[in-house]
Amino acid sequence: MPPKSTELTYRQAIEELETILRALETDAVDVDDLTSRVQRSAELIRLCKLKLRSAEQAIDQVFENLEDEEDADDFA
User: Fold this and answer.
1) Distance between CA 33 and CA 75 in Å, rounded?
2) Contacts of 41 (CB under 8 A, 6+ apart)
3) pLDDT on residue 5
4) Alpha-carbon distance 76 to 7, whole Å?
5) Helices 31-75 and 10-25: angle between axes, nearest 10 degrees
6) How far apart are alpha carbons 57 and 60 in whole angstroms?
7) Neighbours of 76 (CB within 10 A)
8) pLDDT at 3 (0 to 100)
9) Which residues, in sequence order, are CB contacts of 34 under 8 Å at separation 6+?
């Protein structure tokens, strides 16, 4: 059983998505298993989006802090 989505890194989630995609492309997925694979894919995509948004916010914060420091230096 794969780890819970919250325990996965971005890379692990992408790798699992790629594995599911390869299986779907080669028709290696039984029709009965298709629904669970699609649901798992949706979970992984949500996780990846969340991690990307979080990283974007963290990076934006770093740049805001740098700008604040530069503004403070201008007044010094």
Assistant:
1) 64
2) 17, 20
3) 61
4) 45
5) 150
6) 5
7) 4
8) 60
9) 24
**Distance, first Cα to last Cα, the chain:** 58
pLDDT confidence of residue 29: 77
Instruction: Please name the amino acid found at residue 46.
Output: R
Helix (H) or strand (E) holding 43: helix 31-75
Measured from the Cβ of residue 13, the count of other Cβ atoms closer than 10 Å reads: 22
CA dihedral over 23, 27, 33, 36, signed as positive or negative: positive
Q: What are the tokens at 2?
A: 């794969």
Give the chain's residues under pLDDT 50.
1
Question: Does residue 44 contact residue 13 with C-beta atoms inside 8 Å?
Answer: yes
Rounded to whole angstroms, the Cα distance separating 39 from 32 reads 13
pTM exceeding the 0.85 threshold for the entire prediction: no
